[in-house]
Amino acid sequence: xxxxxxxxxxxxxxxxxxxxxxxxxxxxxxxxxxxxxxxxxxxxxxxxxxxxxxxxxxxxxxxxxxxxxxxxxxxxxxxxxxxxxxxxxxxxxxxxxxxxxxxxxxxxxxxxxx
Amino acid sequence: xxxxxxxxxxxxxxxxxxxxxxxxxxxxxxxxxxxxxxxxxxxxxxxxxxxxxxxxxxxxxxxxxxxxxxxxxxxxxxxxxxxxxxxxxxxxxxxxxxxxxxxxxxxxx
Lengths: 114, 109
Hints:
The structure holds two protein chains of two kinds. By secondary structure, chain A is mostly beta strands. Chain A has strands spanning 4-7, 10-13, 19-25, 31-38, 42-51, 54-57, 65-66, 76-78, 87-94, 104-105, 109-113.
């Protein structure tokens, strides 16, 4: 089944404890992206990647890191999480860059930073 | 940057027609997406408009006017399962997709 998977789905952690949220797609998509969704603010893009070893900042990249060493994986790294990073996170992928291509979203990761 | 405006909430009756409007201001506009998101779930693709006019896809249609910075999503023969948030997302030449805050649609019997 073609899909985007994220792990973990739920995570409660404490301030400053490094964490990684994994994202994997099995559709051979070139473009991958991370969003956070907060009430009243909608979906905001954190980072995106046009292809392996190519990553770019989105609207809200501060406090996050990403890597794209393989086409299928695009992990999101929070080196020192803070409470303002409590949010619902979505990973998405599309065949090529966003233009003309629908994005497929993962199921989401609900992160709470205490 | 981009500025996207869509109503926060709308209510409609099962079987009716509803139009969800979206206005946007963006530099280097290239197209506009509509996504549906049920509560607690991931967004799913509904439509993509790049040229002016109406794109019809079953019960859902989407309209775009590039000169007016305006789009709408039209949902016909509303069903209870259409209760969801609808996200307007213009795409610009900077290769970024920006989502509006979404319109939460409640369909009542």
